[in-house]
Amino acid sequence: MEFDKSHTFDREAEILKVLGHPVRLKIVAGLISQTCNVKKIWECLGLPQATVSQHLALLKNKHIIEGRREGVEVFYHVVSEEARDIVSALFGRRT
Q1: Which stretches make up the HTH arsR-type domain (predicted)?
Q2: pLDDT at residue 95, rounded to an integer
Q3: Residues 6+ away with beta carbon under 8 Å from 68
Q4: Do the Cβ atoms of 86 and 16 come closer than 8 Å?
Q5: For residue 37, which phi and psi values (nearest 5 degrees)?
Q6: Domain chopping of the chain, boundaries
Q7: With b meaning 16 or more CB within 10 Å and e meaning fewer, what string describes 40-56?
Q8: Which conformational region is residue 46 in: left (phi greater than 0), alpha (psi within -120 to 50 degrees), or beta?
Q9: In a 3-state reduction of DSSP, which class is residue 20?
Q10: Which of 40, 56, 70, 73 has the smallest set of CB atoms within 10 Å of its CB?
């Protein structure tokens, strides 16, 4: 077994930690296939808006998702290719 000694794997490990929570994993898996606003996300998850907003904030802070403002709404999408690859590997398909 060989590894690229110049690659630290820090970013991948950080993404795995963030995706280790079921709610965040669901959010990222859902956002890979479509862009959604907060209301649609919390309705789909059946969780309070405040809870979903906390998870979205963490995902944003870790540069896994980004938001795009349209009027008063913010629409989120996945920007991290590493997160896309990890979620795709977990579910056995390319998303």
Answers
A1: 4-95
A2: 47
A3: 35, 74, 75, 76, 77
A4: yes
A5: -90, 170
A6: 11-90
A7: ebbeebebeeeebeebb
A8: left
A9: coil
A10: 70
Closest Cα partner for 38 from 15, 81, 68? 68
How many whole angstroms separate alpha carbon 33 and alpha carbon 25? 13
Residue with tokens 């000694």: 5
Nearest CA to 86 among 17, 1, 5, 34? 17
Cα angle 56, 63, 9 (rounded to 5 degrees) comes to: 125
Entry pTM: 0.88
Amino acid at residue number 50: A
Instruction: Tell me the two tokens of residue 46.
Output: 């059946």
Distance CA 49, CA 38 (A): 7
- Residue 51 token pair: 């809870």
Tens digit of each residue's pLDDT (9 = 90 or more) over 15-33 = 999 999 999 999 999 999 9
Evaluate whether 78 touches 26 at the Cβ level (below 8 Å).
no
